[in-house]
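Audit log entry. Action: structure prediction of a protein-small molecule complex. Ligand: copper (II) ion. The ligand was supplied as SMILES and no pocket hint was given, so placement is left entirely to the predictor. Protonation state taken as written. Sequence taken verbatim from the request; no trimming, no tag removal. Recorded inputs:
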Amino acid sequence: MKKKIWVCIYLILLTLLTACGMEMPEEMDMSGHVLGHKTSHSSGTTSCADIKEGKTNAPVKKFHLTAKAGDLKLESGETIKNAWTFNGSSPGPEIRVQEGNRIIVTLENKDIRDGVTIHWHGVIVPCSQDGVAGVTQNAVKPGETFTYEFIAKHAGSFWYHSHQQSSIQARKGLIGRFIVEPKKKELDYNKDYAITLHSLGDYELINQTKQLYLSAKSKELVRLRIVNAKNTTQKLAVVGTSYQVISIDGNNIHGSTLIRNQLIPIGAGQRYDILFQIPENRQVKIVNVETNNTITIGDGSEGEKIKDLNKQPKFDFTQYGTPIKDKISLQSKFDKVHSLTLDWSWPNKFTINGEVMHHIPPIMVKKGHLIKLRLINKGGGTHPMHLHGHMFKVLTRNGKPLKSSIYLDTLPVSENEIYEIAFIADNPGLWMKHCHNLIHAQLGMSMMVNYEGITTPYRVGTKSGNLPD
Ligand SMILES: [Cu+2]
C-alpha cells in the first residue's frame, strides 16, 4: 500500500515535470555546424546520410516491422489499452540472425502520429542506419516507410527501440530484441533463450507476462539473454543453480567463473547473458527483485526456496573475469580526455557539465583517435550512460582499475561514482551519448560525439518534429 502511494506521487511528479519540460529549440543541427551555413555539399565534408554499408555478398536476412497503435492482450488475459507495438506485440518480434548476415529491415509506420524510428541499441551500424530522429534520418510519419540495412558484424545480445520521443515511445511498447548468433559457437549450451524486462503502462513485464516459463531438461545447459528495456537498474536473483556471466552488452567476458547467490544488477539499456545448468529434476527460478516477476526454467519439480533475495551481494563486473590483450589500456596514449559531470538541478533539469542537451557542446573526434571519458555522477540518481556507434572499454571505477577487459555500450553510473572509459573513434558519424534513463535524457542528459567533417541534412526541433530525446 505504502509503495503504491509512493509510485503515485512519483508518477504525478514525473508527469508535471515532463509537461513543463525543457524548452525545445525550433531547429537545431546536431552536427554542431552553424545553422544556415551550408556545409553539406562543400568540399571536405561528408553527410551522415551518405555513410552506408558497402556492397558485399553477405547472406541477406529481411524483416518487416509495422509500428501501430492498438490494444495489447497480455498472457494473463488482461488488456493494455492503446499500446504501441511492432507487428502487434511488445516487445516486437525477436530478430535473430547470424554473425555476418546483411540485415534489411523495413519499418512501416501505420498510425503513430508523431512518427517513429528504429535505433539498433549496441549494434555497430553506419551513421545513416542509427535511427536517431533529426540526426541520422527524419522520423517516419504515418503511411511512410524507411528501410534499414547493415551487416551484423558482432555476435551478441542487442535490442531495438524507437529513437523518436524515445522516453514516451519505448515505454508505450516500441521495443524488441536483436540477437546475433555467433558463426562459431565458443561456448556449449543446449538452450538459447532471450527475454526482455520492460514496463508497459502500469504493468511490469517479462516479454508479455509477469511469470514466464521456459522449457529445459535435467542437466541441460541454458544460455539466457536478458535485455533490460526499463529506465532503471533491475536486480535479478538466480535461485537453484550456480551461473556464469558470459557476456555483457554483447561482449563476451574472458575467464568467466561460476558464481552463486549473487544479484545481477542490469543497468537500463544493458544486456546480460548468463549460462547455467538445470539441476537434476529441479527447476531454476530467476526473480527480478525489483518487480517480483519470475522466470521459471526447467521441466522438473519446484526447486529450492531462498528467502531475502534482496540481501544477496551484488555481482560486480569490475572484479570478474580475466584480462585479454587489446588496443586500450590505462597506459594508452589518449588523443583526447573529457570529463562529463552528470547532475540534476531543480526543478527538472538533468545536466552534463551543468547544461542540458541543446546547450552541451559536442565532443569532436577524428577517425583513429583514442578518446577517454571521465563520467562523474554528482546527483540525480543512477545514470546509465549509453554511447551510440561504438563499444567502450571500462578502465576504472572510483580510481580502481578493472580486473578484466570489459567492453560495454551502456554503463550505469551510480551517485558519487566516477568511471573512466575509453573508445577508439573508428566509426565516422554523428553519435548520441546519453542517459538511458530516457526520462533523464528527455530532460536534458543527452549530447553528441561528432566526427570532424561529418554533417547532417536532418534537423532536431519543433519545426521538423524530430525529437530524439
Ligand atoms: Cu540519468
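Audit: result stored. The CA atoms of residues 242 and 260 lie 5 Å apart. Residues 34-42 have pLDDT under 50 and may be disordered.
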